[in-house]
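Note to self: user wants both folds in one dump. Writing first protein now.
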Amino acid sequence: MTILYSNQPISYIGTGRRKTSIARVRLVPGSGKLIINGMPGESYLQFSPNYLRISSGPLRTLGLSKEYDIYVKAEGGGLTGQADAIKLGIARALCTINPENRIALKAKGFLSRDPRVKERKKYGLRKARKAPQFSKR
């Protein structure tokens, strides 16, 4: 989806989800900065090289790391889920920029939403599957 405002450059939007995290991503042509919830991406992701590598993976695959500024509104879950949600949102936004990007991103697995979520707790059990210790007598 492309949004055009009178005084702003064109931006491309993608939504990513993982576990209970949702990330709304906007790609704007720029210098390659990452802003998450109004903070620099490095400080929001606690300077973790793993989270930064995961979230910028689609851009590095296409060689567009310094071409777009990334503005993200992330909510829910923890940093791992949010980093993966940002990755999916960026990949979807890149597909709206150029449909040919889809081939390279799909081959690397960036367009697949990870369906794993926490299993609910059942009654009579301590967790989803952990039962109390069995006593014969």
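First done. Writing the second protein, which came from a different request thread.
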Amino acid sequence: MKNITDSFLCLSYWPSAGSFGFDTDIFATNLINLSVVLGVLIFFGKGVCASCLFQRIDRKQRILRTIRNSEELREGAVEQLEKARARLRKVETEADRFRVNGYSEIEREKLNLINSIYTTLEQLENYKNETIQFEQQRAIHQVQQRVLQQALRGALGTLNNCLNNELHLRTIGANIGMFGAMKEKNN
């Protein structure tokens, strides 16, 4: 096998121009073939490579843009979450205040209601006592009226039995005289 430097240095070894043949020197032909293939690939493949490269760059920019948008949305969501938490704390504070005020208001209303009930009970007790006293007075008055009526009936019965005609006329005359004297006083 020949050395690579031998094929490049020895120029007299080239075959004549009129013949066609295969070069059996693998290293020299590989370099030529590689340079031709690379040249063709670069010539025809630069558009494909450029479009792939631009697509990758464009995709990278879209991904970066999407990441930035996601970060902005996340920051907005975090900000809204903090605002919502602040509102929640405020509402919870107000609810606690209303709850405390409500409980104290309920206690106050309960005490007012209890006091009102006691006042009403006292008034009802007073009305009951007054009613009992009135009914007792009325019952006493009715008993007195009956006793008086019975006493008058008994007295009339006794008087009728004891009075004779003359005594009866004198009593009537005396009563008429008393009524006449009372009438003169009033005039």
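Dump finished. Worth passing along: The chain has a mean pLDDT of 82.
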